[in-house]
């Protein structure tokens, strides 16, 4: 999948002026945040679970080679095959080779962010295969010809009216507007596809080293049908998704649904271990796992390894004011929001994703809700430093930073400038206390007024208050 993060700023501006998008985002934002808050409040040990999960993830990353080898041995013992992909191109080649060998014509897919990361759908379609997304959100955006805008709710940017339009065009018949009717229509359209599929591809929320199992969670049951009805089941997962035991997986499951959708648990939690065995009523004839590196080893060996703790819950973007205002497509690649602003530069390059580490207010909400305590603001700051060190930062921004350094390292000069700016802005704001237009701040004042300061700096007011006490 091509990266378009260099177009972040114009995409963000377009998103802010898209009335339908803003309507969809407003509705989704409140639901995700409120539901998570309720679930967290009802689980007294939630913070203790976060700390335990962080510690366990760090342990796995410290011994990742051991657990991956143990997982591979367990998969092979269960009759499956493990394939190692160094990058996206190798992952695509492995999957295409499997499909070609079994003479596949139709591929059904459960939701998999790794398949999005490696650009799998385009490769399969270019090879002449029919690809059918079975997750409702992925199915909607497939009809729309769009990429996901959220890692757990791919069609969160669509209003109900827009979905109705897509279904009317794709399915014909009377126009459907009720959610239950739209869901039923999707189920009817997809059901025959499950039985036609030669290959079913799913992601893997967790890979269990002790059993060689892949674990997925869904709310629709589409993952179960995808991986049991096709002749061949292929799991795509990043190398960091392995956990030692089934008990360890249950720890993350207690955090995942609460953080992602504000549920106590997902509707379906499904384990797959190898192909169909003698006596099994259903299941695939072949079971393959494609373990994707694609830059993860570099992360593991460097200062950004904490990002590999991510369990792809989406809580960071649900609570991010930037994502909540512009949606996911503005970020230009598979992973949006705070986690994407870290992952995309690390996978695709600091220059290719220049704007993303800087598209953050560093308010810290993402870190406060992350179920595995990834310090996302710290990682974003470090990426900014790396961009500056590598001279990727624009000349305009470098000059602005040089000016800031000049002021910040000279307290007397800083306070003098601060007093001058406070008085000037207060005068511009006048009696209204609001600044409607300000040179150099058009990005702010175009969509809102800038609150004018009271005319005195904080330090001046603080010293006055202390003098009065």
Automatic annotation (TrEMBL):
Task: Return the Gene3D superfamilies for the record.
Answer: Alpha-helical ferredoxin, NagB/RpiA/CoA transferase-like
Organism whose genome encodes this protein = Thiocapsa marina 5811
Q: Does the keyword Membrane apply?
A: no
> What name goes with this protein?
Iron-sulfur cluster binding protein
Determine the domain of life of the protein's source.
Bacteria
| Lineage, opening ranks | Bacteria, Pseudomonadati, Pseudomonadota, Gammaproteobacteria, Chromatiales
Q: Which SUPFAM superfamilies does the record match to this protein? A: alpha-helical ferredoxin (SSF46548), NagB/RpiA/CoA transferase-like (SSF100950)
**Pfam families reported in the protein's UniProt record:** Fer4_8 (PF13183), LUD_dom (PF02589), LutB_C (PF11870)
User: Is Coiled coil among this UniProt entry's keywords?
Assistant: no
One GO MF annotation is: metal ion binding
Locate the 4Fe-4S ferredoxin-type domain: which residues?
301-331
Q: Which residues form a coiled coil?
A: none
């Amino acid at each position: 999948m091509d990266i378009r993060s260099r177009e972040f700023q114009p995409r963000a501006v377009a998103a802010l002026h898209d009335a339908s998008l803003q309507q969809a985002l407003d509705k989704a934002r409140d639901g995700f945040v409120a539901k998570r808050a309720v679930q967290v409040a009802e689980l007294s040990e939630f913070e203790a679970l976060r700390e335990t999960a962080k510690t366990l993830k760090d342990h796995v990353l410290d011994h990742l080679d051991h657990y991956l080898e143990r997982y591979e041995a367990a998969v092979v013992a269960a009759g499956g095959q493990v394939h190692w992909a160094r990058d996206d191109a190798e992952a695509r080649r492995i999957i295409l080779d499997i499909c070609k060998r079994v003479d596949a014509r139709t591929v059904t897919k459960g939701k998999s962010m790794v398949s999005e990361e490696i650009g799998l759908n385009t490769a399969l379609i270019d090879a002449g295969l029919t690809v059918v997304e079975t997750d409702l959100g992925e199915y909607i955006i497939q009809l729309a010809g769009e990429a996901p805008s959220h890692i757990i709710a791919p069609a969160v940017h669509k209003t109900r009216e827009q979905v109705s339009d897509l279904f009317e065009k794709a399915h014909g018949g009377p126009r459907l507007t009720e959610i239950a009717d739209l869901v039923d229509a999707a189920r009817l359209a997809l059901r025959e596809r499950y039985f036609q599929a030669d290959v079913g591809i799913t992601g893997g929320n967790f890979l269990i080293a002790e059993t060689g199992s892949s674990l997925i969670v869904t709310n629709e049951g589409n993952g179960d049908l995808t991986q049991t009805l096709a002749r061949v089941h292929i799991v795509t997962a990043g190398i960091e998704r392995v956990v030692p035991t089934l008990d360890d997986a249950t720890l993350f499951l207690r955090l995942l649904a609460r953080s992602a959708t504000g549920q106590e648990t997902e509707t379906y939690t499904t384990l797959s271990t190898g192909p169909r065995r003698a006596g099994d009523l259903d299941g695939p004839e072949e079971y393959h796992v494609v373990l994707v590196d694609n830059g993860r080893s570099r992360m593991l060996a460097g200062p950004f390894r904490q990002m590999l703790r991510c369990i792809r819950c989406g809580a960071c973007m649900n609570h991010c004011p930037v994502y909540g205002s512009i949606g996911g497509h503005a970020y230009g690649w598979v992973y949006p929001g705070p986690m994407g602003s870290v992952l995309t530069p690390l996978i695709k390059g600091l220059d290719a994703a220049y704007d993303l580490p800087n598209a953050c207010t560093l308010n810290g909400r993402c870190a406060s809700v992350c179920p595995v305590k990834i310090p996302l603001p710290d990682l974003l700051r470090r990426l900014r430093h790396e961009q500056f060190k590598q001279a990727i930062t624009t000349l305009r921004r470098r000059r602005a930073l040089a000016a800031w350094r000049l002021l910040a390292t000279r307290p007397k000069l800083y306070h003098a400038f601060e007093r001058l700016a406070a008085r000037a802005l207060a005068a511009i704001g006048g009696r209204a206390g609001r600044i409607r237009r300000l040179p150099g701040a058009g990005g702010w004042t175009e969509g809102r007024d800038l609150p004018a300061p009271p005319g005195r700096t904080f330090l001046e007011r603080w010293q006055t208050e202390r003098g009065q006490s």
